[in-house]
Amino acid sequence: MDDKLRTAKDLLFHAEELSYEERTELWGLLQYVMTNPKTLLAEGKAKLIAIKIQKVAGPIKEFITELSAKYLAEMSKPT
User: Fold this and answer.
1) What pTM was computed for the model?
2) Which residue from 5, 8, 9, 18 could staple onto 22, CB 3.0 to 4.6 Å apart?
């Protein structure tokens, strides 16, 4: 998972379509979702990620969306 988070951060911070503030905000949202997936806020923050990456190029958008969706799905499974 750490490798995927590093990749996500690299992709976000190289996305020229985003301002520095947008990159920082998205990175914060993504970190929250990945570290606190079982909180009620995680699903809402994941939806914010999906909305905010709409202006990012396809491969970056797909990677970030898939990463957060898979992680939330894994973490929401009953233990």
Assistant:
1) 0.75
2) 18
Both tokens of 18, joined, read 């985003």
In terms of C-beta density within 10 A (0-12 exposed, 13-18 middle, 19 or more buried), how is residue 29 classed? buried
The amino acid that residue 34 corresponds to is M
Domains of the chain, residue spans: 2-75
Instruction: Tell me the C-alpha distance between 62 and 39, whole Å.
Output: 24
- Residue 22: what residue type? E
> How many Cβ atoms from other residues are within 10 Å of residue 36's Cβ?
13
Cα Rg for the chain, rounded, in angstroms?
A: 12
50 CB neighbour count, 10 Å cutoff? 14
